Amino acid sequence: MMNNFFYSLMISWWMGITLSFAQTSPVRTSSVYFAYKQSELSAKAKQKLDQTFARLYRKQVLDYEVTLTGLADSVGNVAANHQLANKRALAVKTYLIAQGVGADKVTVKVLGERPANNEDEHRRNRRVEIVLRWQTRSKPIASKRPPTKPSEHNIQVFFDSVRQTAQTFVIDNSLDTILVGKKGTRMLFYAQSFYIPRGQTAKPITITLREYYTYADMVFADLTTTSGRRLLETGGMLQIRATQAGKALRLKRGQNVLLSFPTNSLKKGMTAFNGKRGNEGLINWQRNNRGWVRGGSLLCINRPRICWLRRLFSRRLRLLKNKETKKATAANRLMMASVNQANEKGNKAYVMSTNRLDWVNCDAFVGVSNSAMVKVQVAPHHSFRNTRYYLLLHQRRSVVAGYQYYQGKLYFRRLPKGEKATLIVIDYKKASIVGI
């Protein structure tokens, strides 16, 4: 297992950053509209598409990406409206491909039906939203921070260069919404959960997600599993952020988000932790007394059911008066909706409720007595300047950072006596990764 981990480290280092389009790259947004219950493009819609993609047609861009989001009105059956929204987005994609747009450059998303108060709003909801982001320079556009050669003068440069690319989702704050991460994380955002400044209520909310489940994920993100001087065992770490029009959002007071962490086996004592990076760059995890974690079956939510679940939650939650009862009931229904299918597959998950976003950790304090914990001091083979030392435990998913001690000794505090571990050294000065 550890050999595979070292291989993963080296592969990730040599492959470099996964390129994506920065938020500052040129962007054009537009929408094309459809007739009632129709998914065919009108002549006017095709003209609008040609105008939007004129620069691309003239080959004035070097690279580009297109995101299409299908929507529908809320008249009739929810599932049918979701399917119609998907057909509309696919119709736009088919037309663009016929005009020369690369099929691999187009991403299709479906939000399904949208609420409306009158016929005019219904008409405006029968649309496909288009986001075209392109590159006009001769070099690739990297994610938010451009890749930089590791420097002996800046310890953070290396971690920035291998930082995990965030997954991006767009949600409507008026609906209960379920999001699914690439590594299996599920997120349930309740309707009206976010505090929105006046004048911005109708604007969509952007959710970004980074998932950290393996040792490679954690080491490359400079993450450890400690709370003060106490050792933790993690069930997974997440970084979740919410923004609207580029401004950070927070959950309303009394509101929680429901998270599902996939796992092969369930351990007792898991609870919710949140963290912030300190001056040394490491995160100190603090227990969230308003959060909770329960073991259960993985939420097996198929994409065609997402719209139905949104509608189900929105209707039933409005019938309940107490906010806490709303949360508990919604969580239980969400679990029960998929419990049979999940049990058949043998998948499990930790289900967490938390009132805080950004850095989130599903953890348990290591249940080892103080008498069975030891401090470890070793003479390092590398200097402490621009170098990170991590100890990875074999019997539990725990990562401990080493510290410089008296007379240049490498110091690890409070480790379980007798457990096997692997020492990982990242030497920034030499721009290399070394295992000892």
From TrEMBL:
Alphabetically ordered keywords of this record: Cell outer membrane, Membrane
Keyword presence, Membrane: yes
Pfam families xrefs: OmpA
Top-rank taxon: Bacteria
Database matches in PROSITE patterns: OMPA_2
GO cellular component: cell outer membrane
Primary localisation category: membrane
Domain (OmpA-like) ranges: 21-136
Subcellular location: Cell outer membrane
The protein's name in its UniProt record: OmpA family protein
Organism annotation: Microscilla marina ATCC 23134
Lineage: Bacteria, Pseudomonadati, Bacteroidota, Cytophagia, Cytophagales
